[in-house]
Specification:
four-stranded antiparallel sheet; globular; Pyrimidine Nucleoside Phosphorylase, Chain A, domain 2; binds uracil; Aldehyde Oxidoreductase, domain 3; about 15% strand; 3 domains; single chain; alpha/beta; about 425 residues; Transferase, Pyrimidine Nucleoside Phosphorylase, Chain A, domain 3; 16 helices
């Protein structure tokens, strides 16, 4: 069958700062997914998009073309309204774990299709897989059953969900074309729209540990994604939130599950509790759900914990099982006394990654018990010699590089200097 376009003409149009037409976009995304357009041609086009951008019409069409490359999930069999969240990723960001069962306990249905971590930010599936027996891969009918029975499901996105994005993302990863707002926004939103949720809250992180460290870029990304969601009929809102300091007191898979369970038990770190509650209220509101109870109450009275246990069991996990613990520990102490002024989230994330909590290449395995416990955070006082971090790994040779990454991560001052942190919730963007 002859093809309606030549890839080189489309590449040249974008190279010369032109707009791509709807048929050109539909064709190139489809033809690349079918293997008609070569990797080197798509690489050139992606670089031209990174350099010259796309307007909203082009981004929206590109997103639709990626959605149309696979199946769109449908939850019309559910009696509850659906709401989901997506975070652009951060250090210690375990919010999905308490949030999904919490929203379910308040009356929502949460179809959370998650990914694994790559680089210094963790992935929800890696965290959940540290629960003995828990299974990430579910068929569509299993997913529906867990959603119907528990009100929330956290599982791996199947290969049929936006397959064009899987191919494009792998290519972007090796061609320096990840950091382009049109490509990031379309990549994230194609998967979330195909997932079939009716409401979506985006947690776009900014600060040194975030993918978008510059707040202006985070704002631009958030606005673009909200617009894409609204155009696709998904009631989408975004919160821009702080990632200059790790969230909570842990970074690493089983360590983060433990901290999430503390939140579900009505305790846990204040920043995790606050962000979880803000996100839960936004999800319920955006989906038009009259909550069965206030989310804060559902954390206190055990309703969210009940859903968590049910959800974990439904996927083969044992919510009562002891979580894995790393074989080796190393304590890092403060070298001076004073107020903690800074704790660099990126450095903590890289250190946890080097301890074995994260992977460098897709497909690599991660250590369930590896990671970092944080004993004191900015705003707190510390005495020289007191523990700042406990590093966990199964392989003690990893400590050296993990400690190197932590060098300069913490600044302590005894001069009365004030802590200047980003507010946890920086901005809200609605459609
Ligand atoms: N996450 C995604 O899913 N896609 C991107 O392009 C970047 C982050």
């Amino acid at each position: 069958m002859s093809e309606p376009f030549a890839a080189v003409e489309i590449i040249s149009a974008k190279r010369d700062k032109g707009e791509l037409t709807d048929p050109q976009i539909d064709w190139i995304v489809d033809a690349y997914t079918r293997g008609i357009v070569a990797d080197e041609q798509m690489s050139a086009l992606l670089m031209a998009i990174l350099l010259n951008g796309m307007n909203m019409r082009e981004i929206s069409r590109w997103t639709n073309a990626m959605i149309n490359s696979g199946e769109r999930m449908n939850w019309s069999a559910l009696t509850r309204k659906t709401a989901d969240k997506h975070s652009t990723g951060g250090v210690g960001d375990k919010i999905t774990l308490p949030l999904a069962p919490l929203v379910a306990a308040c009356g929502g249905a949460v179809p959370q299709l998650s990914g694994r971590g790559l680089g210094h930010t963790g992935g929800t599936l890696d965290k959940m897989e540290s629960i003995p027996g828990w299974r990430a891969s579910l068929s569509s009918s299993e997913m529906l059953k867990v959603l119907q029975d528990c009100g929330a499901v956290i599982c791996a996105a199947g290969t049929e969900l936006a397959p064009a994005d899987k191919k494009l993302y792998a290519l972007r990863d090796v061609t320096g074309t990840v950091p382009a707002i049109p490509l990031i926004a379309s990549s994230i939103m194609s998967k979330k729209i195909a997932e079939g949720t009716s409401a979506l809250i985006l947690d776009v992180k900014t600060g040194n540990g975030a993918f978008m460290s510059d707040p202006a870029q985070a704002h631009e990304l958030a606005k673009t994604m909200v617009e894409l969601g609204m155009r696709a009929g998904v009631n989408t809102r975004a919160l821009i939130t702080a990632m200059d300091v790790p969230l909570g007191f842990t970074a690493g898979n089983a360590l983060e599950v433990r901290e999430s369970i503390e939140v579900l038990a009505g305790g846990g770190p204040p920043d995790i509790v606050e962000l979880t509650l803000v996100m839960a209220r936004e999800m319920l509101d955006a989906a038009g759900i009259s909550p069965l109870m206030d989310p804060a109450e559902a954390l206190k009275n055990g309703a969210a914990m009940d859903v968590w246990r049910q959800m974990v069991r439904a996927q083969g996990g044992d919510p009562e099982a002891k979580l894995p613990v790393a074989k080796e520990k190393h304590i890092v102490t403060a070298d001076s006394s004073g107020e903690i002024i800074e704790m660099n989230a990126l450095k903590v994330g890289i250190s946890a990654w080097r301890l074995g909590a994260g992977r460098s290449r897709q497909g690599e395995s991660v250590q369930a018990g590896a990671g970092i416990e944080i004993h004191a955070k900015p705003g707190g006082h510390i005495e020289a010699g007191m523990p700042l971090f406990t590093l966990h790994t199964d392989e003690s040779p990893r400590f050296e590089r993990a400690l190197e990454a932590l060098s300069g991560a913490v600044r302590i001052s005894s001069t009365g200097e004030k802590v200047q942190l980003l507010p946890l919730i920086i901005e809200k963007i609605t459609g």
